[in-house]
Specification:
The chain has 254 residues and is of the alpha+beta class. The chain has 2 helices and 15 strands. It folds into 2 domains: 1-21 and 232-254; 22-230, Sandwich (Jelly Rolls), CATH 2.60.120.200. Strand 9 and strand 10 form a beta hairpin. Helix 1 (2-20) runs antiparallel to helix 2.
Length: 254
C-alpha cells in the first residue's frame, strides 16, 4: 500500500509540472487541411504549403525552380514571460532556402512570396527564425543561422548549432523572453540572457518559408508544431516547493 501512495504522489507532481507550460497551439496534421490546422499559406510561381494526408505532414509543395511560399498561424499568442516554438522538420536538399521561426502577427501586408527573415524589407514582420543552408542565407555565406528582424534590420544572433542534416528529421526548439533567447537543434543548446530583449507585449505565431533555386523542394515537410507559454517565475517556485514536499513524504513513507 505504501508503494501505491508513493507512486500517486510522484504522479501528481509530474501532472503539475506538465501543466506548468501552457500549450498555446499544437498540430500533428492528422487528417487536417491547412485552414483547419489554424494556418494559412500563400506564395508565388506555383508554390504553396499543403497537408500531405497520407503521411500527416505539412508539405512544402514547390514543384519547380523559383517556386516559393510561406505558411503561418492565422492568429497569434501572447505570453509576458516568453514563448517557445517546438517543431520537427525535414529539408530534402541544400539547393533550397528554408526559414522557420516566430513572427509578430500584427504586422500587416507582408509579402508571402518573400523570405520573411532573409529578405528583410519594408512590411516584413518583426521576427526571429532559423534560416537553413541555402545559397541566399546569412548574406550568402551559406550557413544555418538564427537571425532577428526588428522591422528595419536583420541581425545574425547565432550559428553555433551548425548546419542541419539534409533529408533527416530535425527538431528545433526556439524560446524568446523579455531578456534573451535560446535555441536548440536536436539537443544542442545556445542561449543568450541579458543581451537582448524581445517585445513580449506582441502576439507571436509560427511561420515557415520555403523556396527553390533551380530544383524542386517537394518532399520537404514539417511533421509537428507546438507553441507553449514559458511558465512564469512563480510557477517554478511552486514546483520546487511541491517537489521538496514530495521528497519528504516519500522519505517518511519509507
Amino acid at each position: 500500500m505504501k508503494k501505491i501512495h508513493t507512486i500517486t504522489i510522484i504522479a501528481s507532481l509530474m501532472a503539475v509540472a506538465a501543466q506548468a507550460a501552457d500549450v498555446l497551439y499544437q498540430s500533428d496534421f492528422t487528417g487536417t487541411t491547412v485552414a483547419s490546422a489554424g494556418l494559412e499559406s500563400s506564395g508565388a510561381s506555383g508554390g504553396i504549403w499543403d497537408i500531405d494526408t497520407a503521411n500527416d505532414r505539412l508539405n512544402a509543395n514547390l514543384p519547380g525552380g523559383g517556386d516559393r511560399a510561406t505558411v503561418r498561424n492565422i492568429g497569434g499568442f501572447q505570453s509576458d514571460d516568453g514563448i517557445t516554438l517546438d517543431i520537427t522538420f525535414n529539408q530534402t536538399m541544400s539547393s533550397n532556402d528554408f526559414t522557420i521561426g516566430l513572427f509578430d502577427v500584427s504586422t500587416g501586408g507582408w509579402n508571402y512570396a518573400n523570405d520573411f527573415m532573409q529578405d528583410g524589407t519594408a512590411n516584413q514582420p518583426y521576427s526571429i527564425a532559423l534560416s537553413t543552408d541555402g545559397p541566399r542565407e546569412d548574406a550568402n555565406s551559406n550557413v544555418d543561422v538564427l537571425s532577428f528582424y526588428n522591422g528595419n534590420t536583420v541581425s545574425k544572433l547565432s550559428s553555433a548549432q551548425g548546419n542541419i542534416t539534409m533529408g533527416a528529421d530535425t527538431r528545433l526548439i526556439l524560446t524568446i523572453t523579455g531578456t534573451g533567447y535560446s535555441y536548440s537543434l536536436d539537443g544542442g543548446l545556445t542561449t543568450s540572457s541579458g543581451l537582448m530583449a524581445f517585445d513580449m507585449s506582441k502576439s507571436y505565431g509560427f511561420a515557415a518559408y520555403g523556396s527553390t533555386v533551380g530544383s524542386a523542394l517537394n518532399g520537404s515537410y514539417i511533421s509537428n508544431i507546438t507553441i507553449t507559454a514559458v511558465p512564469e517565475p512563480g510557477t517554478y517556485a511552486l514546483l520546487g516547493g511541491l517537489l521538496a514536499l514530495g521528497y519528504v513524504m516519500v522519505r517518511r513513507r519509507r
